[in-house]
# Entry
Amino acid sequence: MPEPVLLIEKEDGVATITLNRPHAMNALSSELTTAIADTFSDLQQDASIGVAILTGAGRAFCAGLDLKELAEGKNMLGELTAGGAVEANIAIPIKAFGRPVIGAINGVAITGGFELALACDILIASTEARFADTHARVGIIPGSELSQKLSRVIGIYRAKEVSLTGNFIDARQAAAWGLVNRVVEPAALLPACHALAADILSCPRDMVQKYKKLIDDGFQMTLGDGIALEKKTNLEHFLTVNPESIAQRRNGILERGRKQKD
# Structure
């Protein structure tokens, strides 16, 4: 019996999702793409999961679209959404999940794999991680937000250098440019991600989801519109807050601060 192309492990409110085509550098075949969409759709309905960690098996995070499939004329992109609709944006099911997704970038993240990484909320990279946008070299226009999001993350001049050359960025450079949060040794990658997930889960889950949505929605706006959105959301939220809950949470914050200091 063949191994599943996607592995999922749930523990203590965290779902660890592993792309499992190591022989193909976790390239996005039609089967894997559908599995990613289905898995995040299922997780969206699972109230026990507060954080997801996305990583790859073997030496790659994800090598992008399965070019062998594309060369054989198979159209895998339409299988990302139900009803047969053509949808090339692999970020959509991850966004719909609505809870923080930590990308544990264990190896190369190329083109579609780069887009998959950018769909995550926080990126922790192994020293073995490398990023490349080879859309121009392959002859494909990105469809999962890379052309717009990368420039907003690392700046338009750096993004143009990356995308118009197809050159690799190593983990050190990715950290220097603000593409990843930090770089750790390979053996420390998943433990670091799980520790970060535990920190996130120590906050009230409803607040984490609301705050994530506010950041994501504002990211797509002008600064002025984003500030207006924050003010509107702030006022709406304060109508639901009572002094007792604030006092209780304040005590929890003080206690956590004392423990971290010790």
Residues 221-261 form one domain.
